[in-house]
Specification:
The chain has 576 residues and is α+β, with helices and mostly antiparallel strands. It folds into 4 domains: 179 residues, Nucleotidyltransferase, domain 5 (2-Layer Sandwich), CATH 3.30.420.10; 99 residues, Taq DNA Polymerase, Chain T, domain 4 (Up-down Bundle); 130 residues, Alpha-Beta Plaits; 136 residues, 5' to 3' exonuclease, C-terminal subdomain (DNA polymerase, domain 1), CATH 1.10.150. The chain has 23 helices and 15 strands. The radius of gyration is 27 Å and the shape is globular. The mean pLDDT is 93. The chain binds a DNA duplex (9 and 15 nucleotides) through helix 10, helix 12, strand 8, helix 17 and helix 18.
Length: 576
DNA sequence: AGTCTCACG
DNA sequence: ACGTACGTGAGACTC
């Protein structure tokens, strides 16, 4: 959003690439080489000459992580098209095998280690910005970038056809890139005054807790240090339930502290309270305002398309996919995400999408029927396993069934379920046994999926997205168990990711067709956040819901319906 | 840079 | 007997 353009590198054939500098500092605007020859162009002139090429329908533009370049040019009135992205090609072909950054791909596929950026621009306190790099060195670095990208494309593009992944690339990856770029560009409004107030409130509470913690500990120490905390709890006071981390230090995670708190110890309880506030303050109330772009007044995240092996997006700088919601204090932070005056935020989220897709993929008739009947799926599960009628069901019974339902999606284990519910391993094992008896298709699906993964080394989503499972043949039972659970989870999580990707690709055109000015701002795995003028809120909601619910069609016929709930309000908390 | 912890779906 | 819920990103501490 704020990067200045130093230059553009281009490659037309392997081994031949160039760098066109336009923003280096040497020579104050225009740079000359030793012989007095002009080696730097004026940016406006460069863009004017490149625009027809970058927008020419007959010229394919190839890039690595092209969303970055797309944004740079989009900020300057140029929309790159048509294009291929070697990062996305790699992601479609090799998700789960390795990362998809250029340096890694170059070493792997070309056997060539590119010049490290740190060697060119330095690191730490000696770091310079790229405009200060000499044009000679910038040329070596940048032209190599373009050359490597072209060479990668020549290897990866034919594999796309040979490995039958063209549809995934062309319907789920490539068209999403400009959509995400526009979302990033749009940004979301955040209320810095509210965040500052929250930060102060939290700081006051933390200071009070620190005093109390110091008194209980008999000494003042750094509450933020797990090392010091562990020594006080388990060496000084010799409290029971001490567990070691893999490096031999005392574990002080929330599970350990909650157990101690349940035994009536005040110190760990206060540390838990302190940690909640420290987390919210450090990660959100204090960090978010520093991301407000001074030109737009909004926060512009980056969405990473090739980060999660399952097809999910990731959000960075800042991560807007983990804004608090589970605690009252956390929701106060969500209230700082706002729509400007005269606008509303709309949140539209899929209801139980992973369980619905699981019912379809694993072909579980009772689950499908329950969704068709619009039943409370966790209550239904509870009544099936525990034989308790849905009417008048105790909340605890439903909570257990809900944990089992989530466990199923994650590749359930007795250990994990017991841990989650705080019950004995034997009881958890019993629940799972009953679950499998009641829905025999589930065990079949799990066994079949593990077998498929073992035979092929990968699993696939309904849309044909391939997720490689590296450790599936590991002789280490722990590693292999983890890989098996990942294999069970990936088709479900991945299909849900595919569905929302389809929706996101179609939404901008659907909004345009409906003559709506509303903008899509954020994606949070099963949720899309929009901003709409007050007068357009209802129409926008109806377009979003319609496109999201119909997203899988016609590529895939689902035997369960997908339902979407949408709500509008002045802030994200109220809209969700 | 690695570890621990914890925020989200 | 072993070690386990799936997928992420980020901040603080520690070395």
């Amino acid at each position: 959003m704020q990067a200045r353009l130093c230059g553009v590198s281009l490659a037309l054939a392997p081994g031949e690439a160039c760098y066109i500098p336009c923003g280096h500092v040497s020579g104050g605007g225009l740079a000359f080489d030793g012989g007095g020859k002009l080696v730097q162009l004026d940016e406006a002139d460069l863009l004017k000459r490149l625009k027809p090429l970058l927008e020419d329908d007959a010229v394919l533009k190839i890039g690595q992580n092209l969303k970055y370049d797309y944004l740079i040019f989009r900020q300057r009135g140029i929309r790159i098209a048509p294009f291929d992205d070697t990062m996305l090609l790699s992601y479609v072909l090799d998700a789960g095998k390795q990362g998809h950054g250029m340096d890694e791909l170059s070493e792997l596929h070309l056997g060539h280690k590119p010049i490290a950026f740190g060697d060119v621009a330095g690191k730490g306190k000696d770091k310079i910005t790229f405009d200060q790099v000499s044009i000679e060195e910038a040329t070596r670095y940048s032209a190599e970038d373009a050359d490597v990208t072209l060479r990668l494309w020549m290897l990866l593009k034919p594999r796309l056809m040979a490995e039958k992944k063209r549809t995934v690339y062309e319907t789920l990856e490539r068209p999403l890139m400009p959509v995400l770029a526009e979302m990033e560009r749009e940004g979301i409004a955040v209320d810095p005054d509210l965040l500052r107030k929250l930060s102060n409130d939290f700081a006051t509470e933390m200071a009070a807790l620190e005093t109390e913690i110091g008194k209980l500990a008999g000494e003042s120490f750094n509450v933020a240090s797990p090392k010091q905390l562990g020594e006080i709890l388990f060496d000084k006071f010799s409290l029971p339930g001490g567990r070691k981390t893999k490096t031999g230090a005392w574990s002080t995670d929330a599970d350990v502290l909650e157990e101690l708190a349940a035994q009536g110890h005040d110190l760990p309880k206060k540390v838990l309270d302190w940690r909640l506030l420290a987390k919210l303050r450090g990660t959100y109330t204090d960090a978010l305002p520093t991301y407000i772009n001074p030109q737009t007044g909004r926060v512009h995240t980056s969405f990473a398309m090739a980060a999660a092996a399952t097809g999910r997006l990731a959000s960075t700088d800042p991560n807007l996919q983990n804004i608090p919601i589970r605690t009252a204090e956390g929701r106060r932070i969500r209230q700082a995400f706002i729509a400007p005056k005269g606008f509303k935020l709309i949140s539209a989220d899929y209801s139980q999408i992973e369980l619905r897709l699981f019912a379809h993929i694993a072909e579980i008739p009772q689950l499908k029927q329950a969704f068709a009947d619009g039943l409370d799926i966790h209550a239904m599960t509870a009544s099936e396993i525990f034989g308790v009628p849905v009417k008048g069901m105790p909340a605890e019974v439903r909570r257990r069934a809900k944990a089992i339902n989530f466990g199923i999606i994650y590749g359930i284990s007795g250990f994990g379920l017991a841990n989650q519910l705080g019950i004995a391993r034997s009881v958890a094992d019993d629940y799972i046994k009953k679950y499998f008896q009641r829905f025999p298709g589930i065990r079949d699906y799990m066994e079949a999926t593990k077998e498929f993964a073992c035979e092929h080394g990968y699993v696939e989503t309904l849309f044909g997205r391939r997720v490689h499972i590296r450790e599936i043949k590991s002789t280490n039972p722990g590693m292999r168990g983890g890989a098996e659970r990942a294999a069970i989870n990936a088709p479900i999580q991945g299909t849900a990711a595919d569905v929302i990707r389809r929706a996101m690709i179609r939404i901008p055109e659907a909004l345009a067709e409906a003559r709506l000015k509303a903008r899509m701002l954020l994606q949070v795995h099963d949720e899309l956040v929009f901003e709409a003028m007050d007068a357009e809120v209802e129409k926008t909601q109806s377009v979003a819901v319609k496109v999201m619910e119909q997203a899988p069609l016609p590529a895939v016929q689902l035997s369960v319906k997908l339902t979407v709930d949408a709500r509008a309000a002045q802030n994200w908390d109220a809209a969700h």
